[in-house]
Design the sequence.
């Protein structure tokens, strides 16, 4: 059986939790197939990050080096990984369905004429995979046929890899890229700056919807609750479309999928597409003045109230709990 | 500019999805069929490009059954110039769909292919990227802004931590995200004109491509249902149960 190559995403010398999720899922897949899980860290100077990633349980780590891999670009990365698959004889290429994973993996799959399973939530023993369809209202069991198979995993469906007993070996390889064929140019990355936990990594998420009425209210009303709970902040599509908050806060079918221990939905009606992004949260709380709002159908605890009164009150109540 | 816009017919996003008891698919008796919302955004973007670059042509293509003509007519009514229906009755996986679109893009000598980032039924988010690779073209996925300066295209993309800007020359593939634009409604004159616009049907088998699926859907099941929750009477009660009952704070 061929090995599992795990594409390990990183930026600025760090890697997000989603990379550890990919390693965990890749190791699980490799174990089920009786093969090895090899993490691939690509970049112009990825050796230090590769040494860190080597601590998390992959059989081996490859630091794939090339100047063209300095910033993430689909064509350069697809070319480099394809050459590596051919060189190693790998059977699977796997990563988490992050923005990069979603952009890169289908291109890589097409380059190798390989089928791809998007955003799987389970790896079955019989070789099939499970993935959500119809905004998570149907779970599909799918089969991939071919010598090479490409997979992205849903970040919330797998645990993060834990540090292993010993670090694995890191092998440095020059990526095989014909730079003359590259056509994409990285211009800039406008990163939303925040001291808060990452939406996809936080234990608690507090999301605001159109009910907050303005971006200013997100700051004045919601953020005190977010920060009192040490939470990440999310938003419904309606709030992002209205310009209240930046796009990377959107939780939903076509935004981020989160599954924290506690999800608090404030002023969010609960459209199917929003539920698709948070219905696997362990505990769901909804605060909405409309008692018919669909969000209450998935909430473990629902409070029908005016959020402009309830949210500040909740901040005070939480302070009292802390004081005990 | 020759703009190719692939579109897909999907159930209306507000549809209550019911998985059939035998797991072979979803119940379609209550389904209202529409153009995939992200593809509508692609049509709109194509029309705006045409308005800025007179002499451009917007060509729609869909891959499906004859009934999918309805969605092509809607796109033509919005303002597209002509449409192609690649007729197939069977299931085609993303690789096959991309292969067909690559052939159509080549035959049409498209300068740009604009399509939705994902179909809201399948949620695969693969075809645009696969198509770009097959054509050997640059790709810009999850576009929230597309700007042209002669043959150079600059795209702002919605990514995990914020907004990324990339640039490349045409020809290229761009997939649309929610905030790229707000699609227009078809006007009554538009609907009348659409009836006379060319809509060509081409059997998928006649394209001479390998369309055997490599991805097979074995069965569908309904997801596990959440246990019903309850309403609380006050903020104090809410915080109380989160602390003592749910133990999450």
Sequence:
């Amino acid at each position: 059986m061929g090995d599992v190559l795990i594409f390990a995403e990183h930026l600025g010398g760090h890697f997000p939790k989603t990379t550890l999720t990919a390693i965990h899922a890749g190791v699980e897949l490799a174990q089920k197939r009786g093969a090895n899980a090899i993490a691939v860290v690509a970049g112009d100077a990825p050796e230090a990050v590769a040494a860190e990633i080597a601590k998390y349980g992959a059989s081996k780590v490859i630091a794939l080096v090339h100047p063209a891999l300095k910033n993430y670009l689909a064509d350069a990365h697809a070319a480099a990984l394809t050459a590596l698959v051919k060189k190693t004889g790998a059977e699977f290429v796997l990563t988490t369905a992050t923005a990069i994973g979603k952009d890169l993996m289908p291109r890589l799959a097409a380059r190798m004429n390989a089928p791809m399973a998007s955003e799987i939530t389970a790896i079955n023993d019989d070789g099939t995979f499970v993935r959500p369809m119809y905004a998570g209202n149907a779970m599909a069991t799918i089969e991939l046929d071919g010598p090479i198979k490409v997979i992205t995993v849903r970040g919330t469906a797998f645990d993060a890899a834990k540090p292993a007993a010993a670090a694995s070996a890191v092998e440095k390889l020059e990526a095989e890229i014909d730079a003359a064929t590259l056509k994409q140019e990285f211009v800039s990355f406008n990163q939303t700056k925040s001291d808060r936990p990452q939406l996809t990594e936080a234990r608690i998420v507090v999301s605001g919807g159109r009910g907050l009425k303005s971006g200013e209210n997100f700051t004045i009303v919601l953020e005190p609750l977010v920060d009192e709970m040490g939470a990440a902040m999310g938003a419904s599509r309606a709030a992002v479309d209205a310009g209240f908050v930046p796009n990377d806060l959107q939780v939903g079918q076509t935004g981020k999928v989160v599954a924290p221990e506690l999800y608090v939905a404030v002023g969010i009606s609960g459209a199917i597409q929003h539920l698709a992004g948070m219905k696997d949260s362990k505990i769901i709380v909804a605060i909405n003045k409309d008692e018919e709002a669909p969000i209450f159908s998935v909430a473990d605890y629902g409070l029908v109230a005016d959020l402009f009164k309830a949210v500040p009150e909740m901040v005070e109540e939480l302070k009292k709990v802390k004081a005990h | 500019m020759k703009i190719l816009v692939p579109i897909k017919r999907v159930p209306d996003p507000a549809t209550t999805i019911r998985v059939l008891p035998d797991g072979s698919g979803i119940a379609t008796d209550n389904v209202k069929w529409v153009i995939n919302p992200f593809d509508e955004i692609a049509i709109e973007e194509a029309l705006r490009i045409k308005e800025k670059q007179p002499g451009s042509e917007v060509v729609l293509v869909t891959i499906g059954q004859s009934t999918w003509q309805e969605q092509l007519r809607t796109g033509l009514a919005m303002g597209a110039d002509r449409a192609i229906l690649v007729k197939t009755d069977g299931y085609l996986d993303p690789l096959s769909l991309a292969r067909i679109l690559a052939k159509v893009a080549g035959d049409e000598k498209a300068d740009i292919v604009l399509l939705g980032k994902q179909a809201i039924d399948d949620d695969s988010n693969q075809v645009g990227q696969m198509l770009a690779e097959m054509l050997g073209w640059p790709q810009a996925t999850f576009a929230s802004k597309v700007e042209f300066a002669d043959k150079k295209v600059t795209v702002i993309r919605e990514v995990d931590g914020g907004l990324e800007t990339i640039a490349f020359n045409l020809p290229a593939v761009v997939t649309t995200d929610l905030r790229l634009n707000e699609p227009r409604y078809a006007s009554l004159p538009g609907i009348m004109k659409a009836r006379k616009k060319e809509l060509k049907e081409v059997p998928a088998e006649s394209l001479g491509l390998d369309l055997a699926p490599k991805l097979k859907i074995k069965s569908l099941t309904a997801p596990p249902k959440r246990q019903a929750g309850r309403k609380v009477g006050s903020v104090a009660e809410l915080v109380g149960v989160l602390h003592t009952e749910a133990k999450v704070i």
About this structure: Chain A has a mean pLDDT of 96. The helical segments of chain A are 17-33, 47-53, 74-88, 99-111, 215-228, 237-241, 272-275, 307-323. The two ends of chain A are 57 Å apart (CA to CA). Chain A has eight helices and 16 strands.
